[in-house]
């Protein structure tokens, strides 16, 4: 890194410190990181991004809790850019600083929101399912954690709105919905099992079979996977008399009630009747 770029990084670092006004040693530690990058001649293309990453690393090493969102608000770099640069700098300096862990982020959020132990446990289970399915790869841990908590809390009374959760994690509702869809799509039957623990195993197997069938069925081509998934969930709860309804499924999946009913009827037409309980259990 040239002296010119080093000066630009240091200027951005000082600007972040001035805006956040954290302990002075955070800026000093960040300056040491910048000096080491210069010594190792690490290529710097975006000084603002590197400065934000060094500041975040300094906070992590000094165990000063701060969200990437707060640093991003003081910089021209985005959250994802800061996190990616943090990983690059960490690797270059052999610091071993990982990106934020969604499970830790979830724990802090659940405590902040005073959520029940049941919701906290369910959130960690959902988060682990997503990790195993590879949903966390290349995405913001904050938007992922927000999606996890939304799914885990959607059946609670009172439940948290998308706006409530997005604000808690400092993400947009659009990002939350995108991550929720990814998570539901990758782990549809497993999440069904978590969401309805009293459902018999046959209900989960049925969801698996319905989704597998729909992947190659002509009638399902061109239809949103989320709608098919929600229809499969409704089919399973009706067949096995699980305590659920369309309104609840719409909240969880983000699919409209009319679409859920349409996909449910598609499945009835092409697979066979699920149960005579549509009218009684499909109440709004």
Kindly report how far apart the N and C termini lie: 62 Å
Q: Level of helix content? A: 55-70%
CA-based shape:
elongated
Instruction: State the major sheet.
Output: none
Number of strands: 0
Kindly estimate the percentage of residues that lie in beta strands according to DSSP.
Answer: under 5%
Question: How much is the radius of gyration in Å?
Answer: 23 Å
The number of distinct helices, counting runs of at least 4 residues, comes to 16
Low-confidence stretches: 276-284
Question: What class do helices, strands and sheet pairing give?
Answer: mainly alpha
Order of helices and strands: HHHHHHHHHHHHHHHH
Output mean pLDDT. Answer: 85
Model description:
- With about 280 residues, this protein is mainly alpha-helical.
- Helices cover about 70% and strands about 0% of the residues.
- The chain is built from 16 helices and no strands.
- The longest helix has 18 residues, at about 5-20.
- The protein is elongated and about 70 Å long.
- Mean pLDDT is about 85; it is low at about 275-284.
Summarize the helices and strands and which ones pair or pack.
Layout: H1 3-20, H2 24-39, H3 47-61, H4 68-72, H5 79-92, H6 102-112, H7 117-132, H8 141-153, H9 162-169, H10 173-186, H11 188-195, H12 201-216, H13 225-239, H14 246-253, H15 257-271, H16 278-281
Task: Give the tags.
mainly alpha; disordered C terminus; elongated; 0% strand
